Every structure is written in C-alpha cells, then in structure tokens.
Amino acid sequence: MRVAIVGATGAVGHELLRVLESSTLKMDELQLYASPRSAGTKLPFGGGELTVRATPEGAIDADVILASAGGSISKALAPAWVAGGAVVIDNSSAFRLDPDVPLVVPEVNGEAALGHRGIIANPNCTTAIAVVAVAPLHRAFGVRRMIVSTYQATSGAGQKGMDELLAQTHRVLHGQEASADVFAHPIPFNVIPHIDAFGDNGFTKEEMKVVWETRKIIGDDSLRISCTAVRIPTLRTHSEAITLELERPATPEQAREVLRAAAGVEVRDDPASKLYPMPLTASGKYDVEVGRIRSSLVFDGGLDLFVAGDQLLKGAALNAVQIAEYLQEQGALRGRVAG
Fold it and tell me: Would you write out the chain's pLDDT as a tens digit for each of its 339 residues?
C-alpha cells in the first residue's frame, strides 16, 4: 500500500512522520510532498531519509493521502487526488462541514469513515480533543449544554506560531519590546482571546468550529454549545475547561468510571496529589488527559472537567493516521489490508 503526505515539511507533517514510524498501518511506500521551495529537502524516516517532492497539480499515485498543506490547496487538488484513486484524509478546514464528507474521530465515530466518497475530514484540533472526553459522557448521561473555555498553544498556528513565541519571548527577556506578526497581539507573557476572524454573532470562527464540528461528530444537532477560544504562550498542547449540563445526573465518580473505560482517554484526577491535566504532561502523549472532574455548581447533576491534549498529535497527525488504520483494519483500503 502506498501512502503520501502532502505538507510534509510543516509542523503537522513532521508529526505525521513520527506517528507513522510506530503506526500499525501496513504500507509499502511513503511519498512526501510539499511546496516547490521545499522540494529536495530530506526528512528522516525509519532509520533512513526520504526526499520531499513538489506537490503536483494533478493526481498522486498513492492509495492514501494525508493532507496537511492548508485549505486552499486541499480544495484545489483533493478532487484530482480522489479521481486518481486515492482516499484523502484532510487536516484542513476545507471539507469539515461538507455534508457529504465524514468528519471523524475514530474513538467516537470511526464507522462514519466507511461512508466516505474519497475524502475524510480531520476535525479542528480543539474539537478533536474535546470530543474524545465529552462523547463517552454524552453516550452515558446525555449532554444538553456544553460550555468550553480553551487555552490554546501557539502550535495551533503552525510552526510560524511556535517560532514567534520563542523569538518574541527572547526579545522580552533581553529587555526589548515584543512585536506580533502571526498573532493579533504580542504573545509572550500574554493571553489573547482572539483566534481566527470574528463573526457577526461576536464569536470567532475557531469558536464556532467547536460548536458545528462537535455536533457533527457526536451526531446530535440539538446539543447547545458555547465556546471562548484563547491563545496562551505555550508551545504545544491545547487545554480546555468544560462545563456540561446532563440529561441524566452523574456524580464525579460515575464520570471517572466512564472515562477510565473510554478509548483515547487518560484519567488524571487526584488534586490532593497535584495530579491533573497539564500541557507539560500531555505534550507528546497520544491519549487526552482528563481531570478536575467535579459536580457543577451551576447545573444540577452536571459536571465540570479539565482536558489537555497534544494539538499536533490527537488534534492533527495522530487522528489522521488513526483514521487510515481504522480503514485498513476494516478492509476499506484498496492496498494491502491488516491480517
């Protein structure tokens, strides 16, 4: 089976390579593509090196394409990739809300991937991390309302975002004034309640993505969701404070029991021992950390919890590879199948 990464030299592309090295996905060939200026770059993989090629305008001779080169490129080229026989797992926002394109988090709705017409969408990173924790609770107790406040790392803006944090922090620590290019304001020692463009309703596109995508993945359009998205000066791993109103009241211990049995979740919840989710401990981890689980003081029988998940892994690269693994396990790829 032939696999291709489009956008191989970006932050998510590098993570895709690392995830594939330990993946259960059986493949015979891995091709790397990026912009023409990156063509010829060599990237390490499997003890050797692979050479990056310029992304072609037409079809790519691969069975699976993991695309992470941006929405404009995916919109322009994904139809040609599909016409050439590939299944495209797209990490951009280009197809997430298309009713004909499955939006998939394998632990939550993996079966939806089987209904694809050539393209499967990877969710927004914030959404992916949230639904891994919320979906099991929704199945067990029914979620009516969900209030989310995010603490999003600079990795959410790609390598340029992380570079700006490091460079501008260096400037501040050396007595210079910080500037902003990637972000709306200087990011060192700051939090910015502004991610993506503002809409007419006062919410940003990032915040509305959480609303729309969570409903689509969980499969419940009645779910009431409000989100405030905030950029913080960390390199990677998004955190989220989540409040849930439930249809069937649940105690914190009942919630912990459900989450301990949930795929992709690590319950990290012992405040007396200073054990709770943090970017420091969740970075580089495949599972989403969930903790600070307690009874809501606002919604009777509801819950408050705190979540941390690696934006470049479960929020992007890992989720895409897991979709490919699921398809192969189900015999739904034209290449070699598991077993």
Answer: 999 999 999 999 999 999 999 999 999 999 999 999 999 999 999 999 999 999 999 999 999 999 999 999 999 999 999 999 999 999 999 999 999 999 999 999 999 999 999 999 999 999 999 999 999 999 999 999 999 999 999 999 988 999 999 999 999 999 999 999 999 999 999 999 999 999 999 999 999 999 999 999 999 999 999 999 999 999 999 999 999 999 999 999 999 999 999 999 999 999 999 999 999 999 999 999 999 999 999 999 999 999 999 999 999 999 999 999 999 999 998 753 344
Maximum Cα interatomic distance, the chain, rounded to a whole number of Å: 60
Is residue 174 among the annotated active site residues? no
| Complete DSSP assignment for 107-174 | HHHGGGGGG-SSEEEPPPHHHHHHHHHHHHHHHHH-EEEEEEEEEB-GGGGHHHHHHHHHHHHHHHHT
Q: Which of 14, 116, 138, 238 is catalytic?
A: 238
Find the helix or strand (DSSP H, E) in which 71 lies: helix 71-83
Q: How far is CA 314 from CA 27, 123, 143, 242, in A?
A: 21, 10, 22, 18
CA 40 to chain centre: 28
270: exposed, middle or buried (Cβ count in 10 Å: 0-12, 13-18, 19+): exposed
Catalytic residue (choose from 14, 116, 125, 138):
125
Q: Are 164 and 154 in contact (CB under 8 A)?
A: yes
Residue 41 DSSP code:
-
Kindly give the interhelix angle for 252-260 and 125-141, rounded to the nearest 10 degrees: 110
Tokens of 327: 């398809």
Q: How many Å apart are CA 15 and CA 54, to the nearest integer? A: 19
The pair of structure tokens assigned to 226 is 């409000």
Task: Quote the DSSP letter at residue 66.
Answer: E
φ and ψ at 290, to 5 degrees?
A: -130, 130
d(CA 161, CA 196): 13
**Cα(244)–Cα(224) distance, rounded to whole angstroms?**
10
